[in-house]
Amino acid sequence: MVTLADFGPEVRAEVKQVREVVSSLHQQLIKWNLVVWTAGNVSQRLRTADLMVIKPSGVRYEDLTPNSMVVTDLEGNVVDGAEAPSSDTASHAYIYRNMPDVYGVVHTHSTYATAWAATGQNIPCGLTMMGDEFGGPVPVGPFRLIGSEAIGKGVVETLKKYPKSPAVLMQNHGPFTIGKDAEAAVKAAAMTEEVAHTMWAARQLGEIIEIDQADIDKLNDRYQNVYGQH
């Protein structure tokens, strides 16, 4: 059995830093009303080794600390940590193995995004901010049971069809988001819930006016390559 002691000082130093980041980002899920009780999880992949850091299973958010974060390999095997890892660990690991540019994964059961997932509907792209962030609708992925890498496979399959989206709504389950690191994935989770809520409200008023894909592409290009500080 491989343990953290089998890795060199560079890896162990990154594990310490990533544990701190992942622990603190779970508090952002609370701040943005994306989770309740012990639901949801954040993970981040290391850059110095094929390892990831993820939330322990069933532990309340107020009890999370950097030391309680669990380190696993990219098959989901525990490398370091006193607690059992999240029940979504195998799916996070599958995403990292099959999407090499992804270094952060988040799962929540945020209310409005999960409502769209429960009805098996994409969130239609009726806002410029959706063009910016998602490059189109937020897609729905297939129904999969929890506890294996099946959900991860569904996430990867869906995002290959929607390569600009950092989010997928797994049917009857909830949103998974990805990013260049865990913070980017948390941002995508917050944005997913925001647009899910707004598009739900728009539906109550009437039909959503979807934006043409050509305009979405222009919005997305500007947001990804021009907006913000560089």
From TrEMBL:
The source's domain of life comes to: Bacteria
- The question of whether Metal-binding is a record keyword is answered with yes
Task: Return the broad EC class.
Answer: isomerase
Q: Where is the Class II aldolase/adducin N-terminal domain?
A: 20-200
Enzyme Commission number(s): 5.1.3.4
Q: Which cofactor does it need?
A: Zn(2+)
Zinc as UniProt keyword = yes
Q: Which GO terms describe its molecular function?
A: aldehyde-lyase activity; L-ribulose-phosphate 4-epimerase activity; metal ion binding
One biological process GO term for this chain?
pentose catabolic process
| One GO cellular component term noted in the UniProt record for this chain | cytosol
Q: Which reaction does it catalyse?
A: L-ribulose 5-phosphate = D-xylulose 5-phosphate
Alphabetic keyword roster: Metal-binding, Zinc
The similarity comment for this entry is: Belongs to the aldolase class II family. AraD/FucA subfamily.
Q: Do you know which NCBIfam families this protein is assigned to?
A: PRK06557.1
What is the name of this protein? L-ribulose-5-phosphate 4-epimerase
Species lineage: Bacteria, Bacillati, Actinomycetota, Actinomycetes, Bifidobacteriales
